[in-house]
Design goal:
Belongs to the RecR family. By secondary structure, the protein is α/β, with parallel strands linked by helices. The chain has nine helices and seven strands; from the N terminus they run H-H-H-E-E-H-E-H-E-H-E-H-E-H-E-H. The structure holds zinc ion.
Length: 205
């Protein structure tokens, strides 16, 4: 692409670094921003730099948060005996959107993937185990994607957790949805949380 302006070229280069954004789309977005008020563009860039500079990860569940401990972990009406284990923040949002779950979460920050060199020590696994030692947790629910990485992670976590006196269950995963949690519709995901099964039983099906 031949640009008439270095400023334009730089902005397009930054936008095209975003996932799924090619140069043409980047140019369209940049030209759109140029048509906006300066105040509007300041709000846009301010929101991005605020996000990057001020965002935190909850000390307890590791979800993205505006505070040291997130609003879910501090909510008085949450059932503190339940921990739903998910891969990332998008999955917390997906489960929250179902309105079928009132417990706490634990965000692993990824899934075990030997192919990609991601092992348990790269994830928030030890902190999950710590939570079981300290709290009155009675059930851990795995809500991980039905992929090989998801299965490997559940298999490993089950081994780490089963010596604790808790129920270990998994959301119904199967033909209803293969793959990523975030693409499951709310109704299906809500139902699969409500009808979750003990992990050991899920293996024999
Ligand atoms: Zn939290």
């Amino acid at each position: 692409m031949n640009f008439s302006s270095k400023l334009l070229e730089d902005a397009v280069a930054e936008f095209s670094k975003l996932p799924g954004v090619g140069q043409k789309t980047a140019l369209r977005l940049v030209l759109h921003l140029l048509k906006q008020d300066r105040a509007e563009v300041d709000r846009f860039s301010g929101a991005i730099s605020n996000l990057r500079n001020n965002i935190q990860f909850c000390q307890t569940c590791h979800n993205i948060s505006d505070h040291v401990v997130c609003e879910i972990c501090t909510a008085p009406k949450r059932d503190r005996g339940l921990i739903c284990v998910v891969e990332d923040t998008r999955d917390v949002m997906a489960v929250e959107n179902t309105n079928q779950y009132n417990g706490l979460y634990h965000v692993l920050g990824g899934l075990i993937s030997p192919m990609d060199g991601i092992g348990p020590s790269d994830l928030e696994v030890d902190t999950l185990v710590e939570r079981l030692k300290e709290n009155e947790v009675r059930e851990v629910i795995f809500a991980l994607s039905a992929t090989m990485e998801g299965d490997t992670t559940i298999f490993y976590l089950n081994k780490r957790l089963k010596s604790y006196n808790i129920t270990i269950s998994t959301i119904a995963r199967g033909i209803a949805f293969g793959g990523e949690l975030e693409y499951v519709d709310e109704l299906t995901l809500g139902r699969s949380i409500a009808t979750r099964v003990p992990y050991e039983n899920s293996l024999s099906r």
